[in-house]
Amino acid sequence: MKIINTSWQIILCAGILLSSSNRLVATELTEKQLLVNIVNEAVDLHPLVQAAKEKLNKASADAKAKGQALYNPEIALDYESNVENTTMIGLSQTIDWSDKRQTFTQIGQHNKSAAVEEYDLIRQQIIAEFLSKINQFQSSKQASELNFQQSSTLKQFVSIAKQRFKVGDINQLELDLALMVAGEISMNSARIQSKFYSAETELRAFLNFNNTEIPKISTQGINLDWIPLEQVLEKHPLLKQLRLESQIARTEIILAKKKSSIDPTVSINAGKEGDENIYSLGFSMPLFVRNNYSAEIDSAVAQAAIVDQNYRNHYRNVMVAAKISRKTLELTFKAYKDWINQIQQGLEQRSELLQKSWNSGDLSTTEYLVQIQQTLQTRIAAVELKTDLVDAWINNLLSSGRLEDWLAQKN
């Protein structure tokens, strides 16, 4: 019986642990989804994204317009009053003999697809800007809190130092040094608090000054699982947009050549002359004598060459940016991991230990002040390192065109 009870206890404990684990994962997913929801809502309302959306709507309308027939039929009425009154009615139609409509349709569809990629690119740029502002706000807030804690600690220290100076435990130089360090930190407080205010205001402006609680950007999801560079360049929205523009430019050459071909017009007429019915057929076509449209073809060829060179330039720039962002993230990630593994735990308790050592006389006032300053600088440097890591991660996602992929991820 005892064995059975023990087995049930083990199963029960395992169930509790599994349930706790599931709740933890659910909480993390909820925080990620909350951040994603806030980002999507803020970005969708951004003026530049709204403008890109309207540009996409325009491109869709233009694509539909370019798919319409080039020529409408024409109707003509003619009346001549003479010995025998003549009345004629005619219907004419110009024929798109070279099928320019199909070429216009291709251009319209390519323009629409390019607008989709431009919209995606602008969205990713605004997402990166928003995430960066969240990162700057959270890091400056943490730095502000550290500064406030340190200022409070030094105020207590200065008060104790003054008392110890009165009883002769420390000399005038040590007291002056304590006052000087406290003053220096107080002066730095203005810069740190001002940076925090600026970061908070910029973030609130992005949120239209709504008092929205922003989840922290966690470093847990940052990894170095690199996507092959060729795949990055293939799917990058800027390069996809430029490739479509190259297709448009080449299609414009075809269109220019088709414009130099003849589109004839045929007509049919019917009427009465006196008591007699009369019918006639008509045919006309333009004569490319004064303008054979060869200059338009040369212009389209030159434009296509310009677009191709522009693509090559941006391809190189995107490739370089992707490589640099990967290396920056790799170096920053390693430095941050080293900090977490080697320094962080001991540093968080250092200020309290220094205070005890000074109170017990194991540390001189000068040594205490030097080390307390160094501790504060190291902790703020750690905050800045985390900020750099998140910024490097955001920049890597942006340079590789994968910010939308990150938003779509469930964890």
Secondary-structure topology with pairs:
Elements (H helix, E strand, L loop, with lengths): L1 H43 L2 H20 L7 E7 L5 E9 L5 H67 L5 H35 L22 H7 L1 H23 L5 E9 L2 E9 L9 H49 L1 H5 L1 H11 L4 H35 L3 H6 L3
Helix pairs in contact: 1-3, 2-3, 3-4, 3-6, 3-10, 4-10, 6-7, 7-10, 9-10
What does this structure look like?
With 411 residues, the chain is of the alpha+beta class. The chain has a single domain, classed as Outer membrane efflux proteins (OEP) (Up-down Bundle). It is built from eleven helices and four strands. The protein has helices at 2-44, 47-66, 100-166, 172-206, 229-235, 237-259, 294-342, 344-348, 350-360, 365-399, 403-408; strands spanning 74-80, 86-94, 265-273, 276-284. It has a four-stranded antiparallel β-sheet with strand order 1-2-3-4, with no helix packed on it. The longest helix is centred in the first third of the chain and has 67 residues, at 100-166. The radius of gyration is 37 Å and the shape is rod-shaped. Residues 1-28 have low confidence and may be disordered.
